[in-house]
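Service request form, structural biology core

Requester: graduate student, group of Dr. S.
Request type: structure prediction, single chain
Budget code: on file
Notes: please return the result as structure tokens.

Sequence provided:
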Amino acid sequence: MNVAEIMKKMVAYSEGNRHDINHFMKVYAFAKMIGECEGLNRELQQTLEIAAIVHDIACPLCREKYGNTNGKKQEEEGMPLTEEFLKDMDLPEEMRKRVVFLVGHHHTPDAVDGIDYQILLEADYLVNADESSYSAENIANTMNLLFRTKTGIELLKAIYVSE
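Core staff response, request fulfilled:
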């Protein structure tokens, strides 16, 4: 199954929730761009793109179950949901496991163990900064504490930081 098919399935899974669909599409676009600019190999790029598409798969369940989309609850609930979502797709086992891991850790910035993980964090933050109207102070602090890729830093500065 290719990335576009997974994206189409995730749109259907989102049941018309335009916020969720728009969010994952934007995170996907940033992740794809950063990954390509940083020179990820094809398999790692595909892993990153799939993780970006499904990273917030638990948000609808968390809203219903907890009344919010708390990051730690998203991680806990997201792993089994992602496993189920991907189970019938033609993905290499290691790639599927890595996507599940990334979904289960995309709100845990102190455990980054690879460039795919780093880029997913950066792409999600780039979108969240706009959607949640983060302050200039928050953005400056996050740039220093979280961002590591050259492309992610360039994008954050171009979009949010006035020289």
